[in-house]
Design a protein that fits this description.
single chain, 12 strands, 10 helices, about 45% helix
Length: about 300
């Protein structure tokens, strides 16, 4: 059974990498409505350092952190996150997950099932759904309706020439690429505005680039080009909608710390009211289903093309 929240919910953090250090820990430490209950990491020395810098304590025993917390936030690779989120839910903790929830449908389904069985609240931190300017824009365009087409380019330069980003050392990003790292951001906008995905076409481009063409329940279609390997000079994150209301572009947004604070607020509200958050573990499962299908289609197309070339 999920824990009841007190006046000041206790929220712990799992993870000690750059994302945890730059976003999660600062947001939790600064949030006046919660108690930052502690940090656990796979490297105890990193957990101790992050906890000391954030004014909380480090835990080497994960179950002890669950016991000391009403909810936990995750800043871990997706397929490390998923089984630990199941454990957290089974311990009664509400969960604030990172995207993607998992890179397998089975893993994401286990998380969603455990959360539901425990009666726990869940939120998946898709940044655009919680950053003020973009969250308001998504609500406005969803209410407006009448959209015919969506077009998105998320061209990250994490692996571009000269990149010195700390995130480039992430093994899961290196393996899964832009489809799984930035694809959830684009889908987190398209699904509420255009409706669920009903058809997918996918193809590979240079390096980790993927091109998607999607159909939605509203009847609209959308495209997305996703990569972490663009030249720095070409990097951009842009999404445009076309329809009876004209042409509108996703606005710029500030850093992720404020957005993460809003995600904390959404989790607390869901836990207190019992009303599921719009961007919850079930939504995270749907993102994984779509990305898994797109990946399989792109790989099949690439294999077919390679066989055709080999045959002359």
């Amino acid at each position: 059974m999920a824990k009841q929240l007190g006046a000041k919910p206790r929220i712990g953090l799992l993870g000690t990498g750059p994302w945890a250090g730059h976003t999660h820990a600062p947001a939790l430490a600064a949030h006046r409505g919660i108690e930052f209950s502690g940090v656990w990491g796979r490297r105890p020395e990193a957990a101790a350092g992050l906890a000391a810098a954030s004014g909380t304590r480090a835990y080497e025993d994960l179950d002890a952190l669950f016991e000391a917390s009403d909810a936990v936030a995750f800043a871990l690779p997706p397929d490390v996150q998923a089984p630990l989120a199941v454990r957290a839910a089974e311990a009664g903790c509400h969960v604030l997950l990172d995207k993607p929830v998992a890179t397998t449908v089975a893993g994401a389904r286990e998380v969603a099932g455990a959360v539901e069985a425990a009666g726990a609240a869940s939120v998946v931190f898709c940044t655009l759904r919680f950053a003020g300017p973009t969250a308001r824009w998504i609500e406005e365009q969803t209410a407006a309706g009448g959209w015919f087409l969506g077009e998105a380019h998320w061209l990250g330069s994490l692996y571009g020439a000269g990149s010195s980003s700390a995130y480039a050392a992430s093994p899961w990003r290196r393996e899964k690429g832009g489809l799984w790292d930035v694809g959830p951001h684009v889908l987190s906008v398209y699904l509420p505005v255009l409706g669920d995905v009903t058809e997918i076409t996918a193809a590979r481009g240079p390096a980790d680039t993927h091109h998607l063409v999607l159909r939605h329940t509203s009847g609209a279609s959308s495209t997305a080009t996703l990569t972490l390997s663009a030249p720095p000079e070409a990097a951009e994150a842009a999404l445009t909608l076309y329809g009876s209301g004209g042409r509108v572009e996703l606005p710029r947004w500030d850093g992720a710390v404020g957005a993460f604070g809003a995600a904390v607020d959404a989790l607390v509200e869901a836990a207190r009211t019992g009303e599921p958050a719009a961007c919850d573990a079930r939504f995270g499962l749907r993102l994984t289903e779509i990305l898994t299908r797109a990946e399989a289609l792109a790989e099949a197309r690439a294999k077919e093309s390679a066989e055709e070339r080999a045959q002359g």
